[in-house]
Amino acid sequence: MRISGLSERTGLPVATLKYYLREGLVPPGRATSPNQARYDDTHVERVRLIRALTEVGGLDLATVDRVLSSIDGPDVERLGVLGSAQRALLGAEFVEYDPATADEPPTSRARDWVTRRGWQVDLHDPVLDALDRAWDACEASLVGFDEGKLGVYADAAERIAQIDVESVPPDPHAAVRQVVLGTVLVDALLVALRRLAQQHVAVSRHGDG
Amino acid sequence: MRISGLSERTGLPVATLKYYLREGLVPPGRATSPNQARYDDTHVERVRLIRALTEVGGLDLATVDRVLSSIDGPDVERLGVLGSAQRALLGAEFVEYDPATADEPPTSRARDWVTRRGWQVDLHDPVLDALDRAWDACEASLVGFDEGKLGVYADAAERIAQIDVESVPPDPHAAVRQVVLGTVLVDALLVALRRLAQQHVAVSRHGDG
Q1: How many domains in chain A?
Q2: What ipTM, to 2 d.p.?
Q3: pLDDT tens digits for range A90-108
Q4: H or E segment at A32?
Q5: A46: domain CATH number?
Q6: Which of A200, A204, A206, A208 to probe by mutation at the B interface, max B CB count within 10 Å?
Q7: Does one domain contain both A62 and A52?
Q8: Which residues span the membrane (chains A, B) (predicted)?
Q9: Quick one: A70 and A51 in the same domain?
Q10: pLDDT digits over B145-180, tens only?
């Protein structure tokens, strides 16, 4: 199909598609003349993926670029599928992090807590700093937030992670794709489900709409 | 304290604090001369809250403004605490929505699904459109995503919502504050916990780091 057909199939204006092509987010089509190219279903799928990541996942185009590179990249086995996928979402500086040459991990309340809980995670992971910040903010701002409540949230997160990890395919490239997209898209799904479940639980308990 | 003291206590530059004061995000101090004012602990708490909402919750200042207005506002009982708090996070257009005068709700797959599940939620709620979009995107992009998997995610969301709702204080103003902050800050907490739980579950299952 021509770029106008790609526009029809994906619902995005031709100008936006040309921008994605210039930025390398979408691979070039097969050139049929100096000014024309043909696109196929792989282009449709790629554009839909970019739409999902931006519109559902709320990612900016720079992050989409990193995510797509991690899906396409050849180096997925080196760092482990989950680590490389999660780092692609966090930022370029973490993609280069190599556990083999890293220093002693920093100490923090979140690191103590995951160790006590028995979670086998990389203590260098910057997600632990995000957990420290979120924990501090919850404790400072919310009535009755304590480590017990954090533990119940962590139980629910573990349940969610079991479903996440269950469906990861064995092939490393397919696995990275699944983990990256699952992380972004299921975050959006969980946010919506949590809002709805809150309404339902509040109505069931207090009987007010 | 002077504005320099407020800066020390909150870790934000004086220029940023002056911007928040001009924008009305922080209430004015008590004027001691035409060019000077005194601030107290309520100002420290407000600035820390803005930091938590922007830095931990990832909100932009326009959304922070809406969230703070919903915490401070007098109209919290009219729409119900959860609804008004959730709408403050979604956008100004939804704050004005009044269930009493609304038309028939639209139909969609997410609306059918919550009805079958027995969740008592407002079928006009735009969160259901967000759920439709996230569901479509997960189905199109993820291996093995189906309604069964959505159901297990929903079970986890219900568990989380029970903890959320348990600690909501009875006073409506305190309740809105708790729900709004809990929604934003616990979303950030859950994202971090899910990433860590994924690593732990993956390591436990496959034995690779």
Answers
A1: 2
A2: 0.76
A3: 543 444 455 555 677 788 9
A4: strand A30-33
A5: 1.10.1660.10
A6: A200
A7: no
A8: none
A9: no
A10: 999 999 999 999 999 988 887 877 777 667 777 877
